[in-house]
Design goal:
Helix content is 26%, strand content 23%. The chain has 4 helices and 11 strands; from the N terminus they run E-E-E-E-E-E-E-H-E-E-E-H-E-H-H. Helix 2 runs parallel beside helix 3. The radius of gyration is 17 Å and the shape is globular.
C-alpha cells in the first residue's frame, strides 16, 4: 500500500499534511505529492497527560533561529519545543544504508527533519507548557486555505514514528495508522531492514527500569 493511497479524515488540531523535502544523499527523500488525509483523534483533554488544545488557535512561523536537537525537538529563544505525538529515531542507534555502511539513525532523521521544515515553512502553535522552558507544539503547512499537519507528513514519509506516553498509550492514535502505511511501503527510514524502532527501545528501557525499581524496593 503506497502512502499516497491513504485517504482518511483528519481531526488532530484541525490540520492535515503537505510538504516538499530537499534531497540529502544518499538516502531516498520524499517527492511532492497530493495532500494526505489522515485519521488522527484529538486526545482526551480530561486526561492530565494530554495537552490542552484550548489555546491552540495562534499559529506563528517556525523560528528561523531554531537549533534542532533531534528530529522532534528544537531550541529557539531559550526555550525547547517538542512536536506533539511525534517520535524521532534515537541518536546512538544505527541503520545500514548500504552493504558495510552504517549511519546514525537519529542524525539521519535530524537531517531530513531540517530539510522538510526548511522547504515546507510550517507554522506552529503551543498546545501545552510543560514548564517555563519546555513546550509541546503542533505544526502545519498550508496550501490555499487548508492546513496540513507536519507530524503526519513526516511519519507518512517514513521520517518519524507515532509517539507513546508514559503509560504506553499512543499520543495520537491516528499516527500509528500512518506509520503502518509507511512501513508497508518501505518509505524513508523503513527502507532499512535493521531500522531500530525508537518506541520499542524506549518502552523496553522503561520496563527494565521499572523492573529494577521493583527489585530494589524488595
Amino acid at each position: 500500500m503506497r502512502v499516497s493511497t491513504i485517504m482518511l479524515v483528519a481531526t488532530v488540531a484541525s490540520s492535515l499534511v503537505y510538504a516538499v523535502a530537499a534531497a540529502v544523499p544518499p538516502v531516498r527523500v520524499p517527492t511532492q505529492r497530493a495532500p494526505v488525509l489522515v485519521q488522527a483523534r484529538v486526545p482526551d483533554t480530561s486526561n492530565s497527560t494530554s495537552p490542552d488544545y484550548g489555546n491552540a488557535s495562534k499559529f506563528v512561523p517556525f523560528p528561523s533561529t531554531a537549533q534542532f536537537e533531534t528530529a522532534d525537538s528544537w531550541i529557539a529563544d531559550g526555550k525547547r519545543y517538542r512536536l506533539y505525538g511525534f517520535q524521532a529515531c534515537l541518536r546512538g542507534t544505527s541503520v545500514t544504508i548500504a552493504p558495510g555502511v552504517k549511519r546514525d539513525c537519529g542524525k539521519l532523521n535530524l537531517i531530513m527533519a531540517q530539510a522538510i521544515v526548511r522547504d515546507s515553512k510550517p507554522v506552529c502553535t503551543t498546545i501545552r507548557e510543560l514548564d517555563a522552558n519546555n513546550l509541546l507544539v503542533v505544526c502545519q503547512t498550508t496550501t490555499g486555505k487548508t492546513g496540513y499537519d507536519l507530524a503526519t507528513y513526516m511519519i507518512a514519509q517514513g521520517w518519524g514514528f507515532a509517539a507513546v506516553g508514559p503509560s504506553g498509550q499512543l499520543a495520537v492514535p491516528g499516527y500509528r495508522v500512518v506509520e503502518q502505511g509507511a512501513r508497508e511501503a518501505r518509505e524513508g527510514l523503513w527502507a532499512y531492514v535493521d531500522l531500530p524502532h525508537p518506541v520499542s527501545i524506549l518502552v523496553g528501557q522503561s520496563k527494565h527500569q521499572s523492573s529494577n525499581s521493583a527489585v530494589g524496593e524488595r
